[in-house]
Known about the structure:
The complex is a heterodimer of chains A (111) and B (557). Chain A has 111 residues and is mostly helical. Chain A contains 4 helices and 2 strands; from the N terminus they run βααααβ. Chain B is an alpha/beta fold and 557 residues long.
Amino acid sequence: MIIMSDTSRIFPKKIEGANPPSRVYDGARKDLGLSYEELNVIINLNNPPLRFGQMRPLVHELYNFSDGTNSVDDIARKLGFEFGLKIDSIFVLKFIEQLEKLRIVTCNHNS
Amino acid sequence: MFEYFDILKNNFNGETAKEHTRNISQYYRSHGSSGYHSALEYIHNEIKKLGLDEVTVETFPLNSLGADNVQYTTDGFYPAWEPISVESSIVSPVNEKIVSYSDTPTCITWYSKSTPPGGITAEICDIGSGLSVSDYDGIDLKGKIALATGNSPEDTLRTYELAVEKFGAIGLISDCLIGPIPGYRTREITPDFVSLNRLSRKHNDSWAIMISGRKGARLRDLLANGPVKIHVELEAKTFDGQGETLIAAIKGGELPDEEAIVIGHVTNPRPNANCASGPALMIELARTYSSLISEGKIPRPKRTIRFLFVPEGTGSKAYATDHKDTLDKIVGAVCLCGVGQIQDLCKSLLTLSRTTDSVPSYLNDVAYSFLENGVKIATPPLRYREIPYSPFSDNSTLNLVGVPTVLIASEPNIFFHTQYLTWETTSEEVFNVSGVVVGGTTLLAANADLKSSVQIVNLTSTRSEERLLKKGQSFHEHLLSSSKKSESQLTEFITKSKDEIDYLVERDSIALDSCKTLYKKSELEPFINNAKQQLVSTSRKIKENLDNLVSSYGVLV
């Protein structure tokens, strides 16, 4: 279990050969393994909350930025600047955890 | 740098692109359907006439193997799907037609399954938006058809998930109008719009049809006075089929292994002229290039120019997988969707969606320059804008595998994905502008040598400086015009502002470095390094200005 204060030391990296995420929500048989309710929890963890339709480009980009050199905090900061939104690390972390579970990214915990 | 501008303006024929749009948009072009294959055959025949160096069709499976077929996506592609018919009517307390596929092809929700032969007659039950489990409190949907509403594709997916899969409705009927535009596109202002929606692509056992806001209101009015029964007969095929991508190329003369890509999707329902306009423009652009080269008006490009006519999403994913060893040879890609829409009619702007910031590229500023100059061809000039990455076409696939890809699209569009999005909503004048923007950007990338690469470095540098200065200006404005900040708020604002300036410098420095993909020898490097130093210097001044402002803040505010 990752605790929030660690987000500056978690460096996600794409797993070579793994397919990138496509859609975020595809009905009950979900693409990212997250239900509608779980996705709503994540967008509401952000302060201010995000809209459901804003997730797809953000998830694409948080995956893209997962190159092993950007920490979760770095990714949140970059997403915020790119899309003109305030993005909290917790929002990025929740998706990174899911991508890690799906073996799309791996996380290096640099202490 | 803009030497291609006039020659494209004088030779690209928007009228022909419009005619191709008309011809492509007559087919219902869902993934793997007969309509898709017919549309692609039309394009193939047109392309074959041009005498290009390479014209091939690549195929990939669209089947039900799912997880056993994972070479292209994490959970495999989905099966082919094709609509055949929909008839729906109110049968009690009145007899009235609701909607049919023959006159409103957008009414059938993608990946719906057929109703039993002869159709189904059942009571409808209004579930409102039906997005929350609590919306179903006290409602028994078993044996009934759920009547819903909504504003987005996700709304329909969610409503179907709950109403049909969880609470047992037979099917879904909805007046969900995706992408409402206040003042222009709402169920009240455009009450006859029926907008395309889709179900889960791989797993669903039932069906959904879309109706207009007017019909939705009619059904709810009737329901206010008692039970309402409707009859729905829907036929659609879900089958193991084939995806097809048409690839056409003009071989590069000096660097044939390096490529500039133009990509557009052929899929979507009938008519969906915005999607048809992409491949339509590509056919005409291929003709323009080909005839200009054969007439000796332009030289053969240095790099290969490759046109990809794909089924949206699946085609680009298959291409990126099957050609993964050559993706790093692509110097840039332009993706098209909605490149001919009449702006006043559609309330649209010609919109450039940037590459992802994770793939910073010279391509953004080159495409923007062609756009800001290209719109002036039209009288009056077209409206245009630049927006951050938006992942709504094959630009997402390519950016996700590191290929810098911009998207040119007409957005918004009041007819978006409705039955009224016909070829008549396009104009040759808008095609002419798009032809110059797409054609000029691609030709410049394909031909870049030392001289034009230096020009591209200069262009990227100039626009980057402008962005920095504008950002610095906006920070000043904010500080001086907003209410007085406490010391901690001020510190936080300044820290974040400086951080953003650093971010822009970092991103645009990588974009400047991307020019090395166009010219690999060392002569370009001093120009790139100078431009990067200039950005750092400008950013330093902006940050100093912010510090000065902070030191005088108490006096000024």
